Amino acid sequence: MGWMADETGLDKNAANYVPLTPLSFLKRAACVFPNDLAVVYGDHRKSYSEYHDRCTRLASALAAMGVKPGEVVATILPNVPAQAEAHFGVPACGAVLNTINIRLDVDTVSYIFGHGEARVALVDTQFLGLAEAAIEAMEGDGPHIIEVPDPAHGYPASGKYPTYEDVLAQADPDFDWIMPQDEWESLALNYTSGTTGRPKGVVYHHRGAYLLCFGTVVSWRMTLRPVYLTIVPLFHCNGWNHTWLMPMMGGTLVCLRDITAKGIYDAIADEGVTHFGGAPIVLNMIVNARDDERRPFDHVVEVFTAGAPPPAATLAAIEPLGFNVTQVYGLTETFGHVTECLWRPEWDDLPDEERYAIKARTGVLMPMMEHITVMDENMNEVPWDGHTTGEIMIRGNSVMKGYLKNPEATAEAFAGGYFHSGDVAFMHEDGYIKITDRAKDVIISGGENISSVEVEGVLMKHPAVLLCAVVAKPDEKWGEVPCAFVELKEGQSVSEEELIAFSRQTLAGFKAPKKVVFRELPKTSTGKIQKFRLREVAKSL
C-alpha cells in the first residue's frame, strides 16, 4: 500500500483549499492591476480599483435591500457597464444572477421573473415598459426595479425608480464579499430559448465558470491585457463567461450597446480591441460594411464564432481584413463554448476552400472538459468515418447543475452520465466533430435559438389557418430566419402581411416569420408534415 494508506493530518484546510469562483479574479485584479483600465463605455472609463469598488457597492446595496444568499437578482440590460458589474456584484452578495434576454416578449419575461423568483431587477430605461408589463402580468409580487438610465444613448432616467448610480453612491464601499463556501453553489440562472413550451432555467455553479475562464484563455491563446469587445450579449450564457475572465488577465472590457459595423470598427481602431465573440451574422456585418463605416487597424483581431458554422465564403472575405476566426460550439447548458476548431499547422498550406471547410468544423473539446463525442441511440461512440451521424454528448466541469425546479428534464439530459446536446453530428477521421443539423428544427437567427414549434403554435391560433410548418430560411443578414408554410381553411383568406402582424402580437419580433408561403404541406402516409422537403423549398425562395 505504501505511505498513501496513512494520510493522517493531510486534510483540506483554509490554507490549502479554497472553493473555485470567478469572483476571485476581480478581487485579485483590484490588487494586481489597480490602475489598469478595466471597463470602457464612451466617457465611462474605470480602473480595476474603481470597478471593484462599484461591484462591492452593488453587492452592499442588494444586501441592504434584503437580498439573501441563494436568492435571485435579475437584469434586463444591453451590454452596458452595469451588466458587467452585476456579474460580480450580484454573486458577491451571495445571490444568483439571472440575466434576461432583452428581445423576449412580455409573457416570457413574466414567466422568468416568477419561475426564478427574482427579488430585484436591474432594468435599462429602454426596457422599463417590458419589465413593468411583465411584473403586472405576474400573479405574485414581482421584483423591485433599480433603473439603469443611459442618457448618452437617448435613455435618460424616467424618475419612477431609484437609479443605479444613486444606489451605488449610497452603498457601503467596505462591504465584505460573500464568497461561496462550496464551489458547487449556484452562480447564475440562464433561461434557454426552449425548443418546446416554456424556457428551462439552467443553473450554473462557480466551479464551472471558473474553469471555463481558464480553458478559454488557453484555447484563445490569450496573453496579458487583452482588449475584449462585448458583442455576444451578456444575457447569452453570461457572454460566454468572457466578462468573468477579463480581470484574470488584467484585460479591458469594451462595452457596445448597439452592435453595428461602425461600432465594431471604431472600437478596434480607437480602443485597440484584440478579441471578440459573435455569431456568423456579426462576421457578415463586418464583411459587408460600407466604406464610410470601416477604419484601418494594424493588428490581427482574434474572433470566436458560434451559433452556426461560418460559411466558407464569409471566412474567405473576413480573414484578409485582419480577423482570425476560430469556430467554437456549446449550449446554454454548458456555460457557453466547450469545443473549438483547434488549428493544426499542417493545414496552413491547404488551398483556401479546404482551409475554410476545416474552419467550419465544430472541433474538439476544450481543456476544462473531460470528454465530448458523438454517440448513437445506444450511447456507443459512432465510428470516426466522416459520415455516420449521432448526437453530441458532453461530459466535463463546465456543464450545468441542471434545470431549476425540473428534475425530470434534468435526469433526461444527464441519462447515462453525459449531457445530451440534442445536436446531430458526425466525427471526422481525426476525431474532429462536425454538426450536420442543430436538433433538426431549431432556427438559429443572429445567434438566438427560435423554436419552430412555438411559432407554429401562434400561427395555428389564427382563425383562417388550417395547418402550418415553420422552418429555417437562409438569410444574408441573420444567418437564418423563420419561414412559415401555411395551409388555409376552405373558404378562408388572410394575407402574408396580416399573418406576420398577427404573430407579432404574441411573439418577440425576432421569432415572428419573415416570409409566409401559402400551399399544401407535404405529409407522410400517417399525416406527419415533412419538414425536410419544406427546408429545400425555403432554400430556393
From TrEMBL:
<dbReference type="Pfam" id="PF00501">
    <property type="entry name" value="AMP-binding"/>
</dbReference>
<dbReference type="InterPro" id="IPR045851">
    <property type="entry name" value="AMP-bd_C_sf"/>
</dbReference>
<dbReference type="InterPro" id="IPR042099">
    <property type="entry name" value="ANL_N_sf"/>
</dbReference>
<dbReference type="Pfam" id="PF13193">
    <property type="entry name" value="AMP-binding_C"/>
</dbReference>
<keyword id="KW-0436">Ligase</keyword>
<protein>
    <recommendedName>
        <fullName>3-methylmercaptopropionyl-CoA ligase</fullName>
        <ecNumber>6.2.1.44</ecNumber>
    </recommendedName>
</protein>
<dbReference type="InterPro" id="IPR000873">
    <property type="entry name" value="AMP-dep_synth/lig_dom"/>
</dbReference>
<comment type="similarity">
    <text>Belongs to the ATP-dependent AMP-binding enzyme family.</text>
</comment>
<feature type="domain" description="AMP-binding enzyme C-terminal">
    <location>
        <begin position="454"/>
        <end position="528"/>
    </location>
</feature>
<feature type="domain" description="AMP-dependent synthetase/ligase">
    <location>
        <begin position="27"/>
        <end position="404"/>
    </location>
</feature>
<dbReference type="InterPro" id="IPR020845">
    <property type="entry name" value="AMP-binding_CS"/>
</dbReference>
<keyword id="KW-0276">Fatty acid metabolism</keyword>
<keyword id="KW-0443">Lipid metabolism</keyword>
<dbReference type="GO" id="GO:0006631">
    <property type="term" value="P:fatty acid metabolic process"/>
</dbReference>
<dbReference type="InterPro" id="IPR025110">
    <property type="entry name" value="AMP-bd_C"/>
</dbReference>
<dbReference type="GO" id="GO:0016874">
    <property type="term" value="F:ligase activity"/>
</dbReference>
